[in-house]
Amino acid sequence: MAPRRNGATLTALAHADVVVAVGGADPIGLQRLVRALPVLAEVGPAAARPVVVVNRLRAGSVGPSPRRAVQDALARWAGVDDPVLLPDDPVAADASVLQGRTLAECAPRSALRAAVGEARRADRRDGAREPPSPRRTSADRTTPSRRTRRGIG
């Protein structure tokens, strides 16, 4: 049998501790997410239900009560009662990307940062283990390296 084009993805999903399914908070993104969840259930880890995240939540794309509209749609069409809803916060997201830093570092008071933090706290309350601390790299240094002080870098 020839290798499947998505073989690496299927293997990663089958062995994942946690699967996060992310969809956009607009009619097309929600429709794609609802269609993808049953497929994901077939190929993902048997015991784990994916964490469903809806990104860029805003009134302009789903109506005046976006939180309720998305929650109702996912409950009705996908049986998802506890999605993580992340607000559309382009200022904070753009600052994070442009600076190459986390939201906590460049926009600690943003609505997006608060929602991500709450989602992490809720995940830990459900018994998930804390991810390991990231390894520090030379980019994390607050003082210049020896190479920079010598004018090399």
Spatial gap, N to C terminus: 51 Å
Number of separate helices: 8
Beta-strand content:
5-15%
Taken in chain order, the helices and strands follow as: HEHEHHEHHHH
What does this structure look like?
The protein has 153 residues and is mainly α. The protein has 2 domains: 18-88, no CATH class; 89-127, no CATH class. It has helices spanning 7-15, 27-43, 59-62, 66-78, 90-99, 103-106, 111-125, 146-149; strands at 20-24, 51-57, 84-87. A 3-stranded parallel β-sheet has the order 1-2-3. The chain starts with 6 loop residues before the first helix and ends with a helix.
The gist of it:
This protein is mainly alpha-helical. The protein has helices at 7-15, 27-43, 59-62, 66-78, 90-99, 103-106, 111-125, 146-149; strands spanning 20-24, 51-57, 84-87.
Helix-strand layout with pairing:
Layout: H1 7-15, E1 20-24, H2 27-43, E2 51-57, H3 59-62, H4 66-78, E3 84-87, H5 90-99, H6 103-106, H7 111-125, H8 146-149
Helix pairs in contact: 2-4
Quickly list its features.
mainly alpha; 153 residues; 10% strand; CobQ/CobB/MinD/ParA nucleotide binding domain-containing protein; 3-stranded parallel beta sheet; P-loop_NTPase; single chain; globular; 2 domains
